[in-house]
Amino acid sequence: MAFPKIIHLSDIHLKREKNKRPKTNQRFEHIVNKLNALDNKAEHIIIITGDIVESVSKKMLSETCPTKNPYIAAKNLLDKIDTEFKKILIVPGNHDSGRKGFIGFSSSFFDSFSNTFSSFMGEPFNSFARSKSIAIDSSLQVETFPTCYEENDALFIGLNSMEGELKDKLNLWADGEIGDEQLDRLNILLEYVQKNNKKCVIYLHHHPFESGFYKALGDNDDFIELLQVYKDSVEAVLFGHNHIGAVHLNKYGIKRWYDAGSTTRKEKSNGYHKIIELNESEPIKDILYDFLDDYNYSNDEQYQEFMTEYD
After folding, report:
1. What pLDDT is recorded for position 257?
2. Are 266 and 11 in contact (CB under 8 A)?
3. Mean per-residue pLDDT for 274-280?
4. What does DSSP say about strands 287-289 and 254-259: parallel, antiparallel, or unpaired?
5. Which of 178, 280, 260 is nearest to 13 (CA)?
6. By 3-state DSSP, what share of the chain in percent is helix, strand and coil, each rounded to 5?
7. 258 within 8 A of 5, measured Cβ to Cβ
């Protein structure tokens, strides 16, 4: 089975572009320029596992210009990525669902997120199921998550790890939850993958097993239990959220778990830049990049401030 190469990014935390250009936006634009300079871009998929923006509110989304609407500012930067890449796939994180990622959450943001970033998302669950003649219960028919992108015998499945969190919850802090209904839909997709001798890559925002204080994936046990049923069909799980950055091997029967950290290294947090080679038997074959290796931090006042604070 031939997988496309995966460029895994996460937690880029783009902001509205007001009078002074946000530093995370500057760093991400630098990363975009480095991406666009890569050779053989058509062999690569870019996956961004949430926290596309730093903060969002209903008032912000009522605006139509990038100086006031963070979604539009983020889309303008994503639009600069070369269309030669095979596909760009994103899912929302907690910062994409409320102010500063821990207050003012609303499920209404998902519609705005899906509408704004539709060109950067996989096919909605309902549409994909219909195209594959997959029978689904009416209660599970939704035009949103999981999203699906099929490339030969590989299925890329995107989850919204805030969906369950925004149902009957206090919606505080940075916790997440996939939710029972979305897990049921994921089960349907994994059954399709298994029956058709395919492999899948699953990507979501919240870290599935290293939660941290007020950062947990509330139904991580249910999620992992489901993956173990189909472990021979799951090639890798990609995520971010905790700004750690790590690779976990053969955990819970799954070959590879990738934590991208914060790609723009928000507040001097960790963020690795890898090109993932799933066609190789060992992750040691993954290509380690630093898309910020020649970024001029001396002009980055925000980064210098945190370097002074944390060093």
Report:
1. 95
2. yes
3. 88
4. unpaired
5. 260
6. 35, 20, 45
7. no
Q: Which two tokens stand for residue 231?
A: 């472990």
Name the token pair of 55. Answer: 């903060």
What are the tens digits of pLDDT across the range 220-245?
999 999 999 999 999 999 999 988 88
CA 267 to CA 254: how far, in whole Å? 31
Task: Measure CA 11 to chain center.
Answer: 8
Contacts of 275 (CB under 8 A, 6+ apart): 5, 6, 7, 44, 286, 287, 289
Rounded Cα–Cα distance for residues 90 and 121 (Å): 6
pTM over cut 0.85: yes
Residue 83's contacts (CB-CB under 8 Å, 6 or more residues apart) are none
DSSP helix/strand/coil, 215:
coil
> Which of 114, 51, 123, 55 lies closest to 87, judged by CA?
123
CATH architecture for residues 5-310: 4-Layer Sandwich (3.60)
Cα(228)–Cα(163) distance, integer angstroms: 22
Q: Which residues contact 28 (CB under 8 A, 6 or more apart)?
A: 12, 14, 77, 263, 264
DSSP element (H, E) containing 258 = strand 254-259
Decide if 15 contacts 73 (C-beta within 8 A): yes
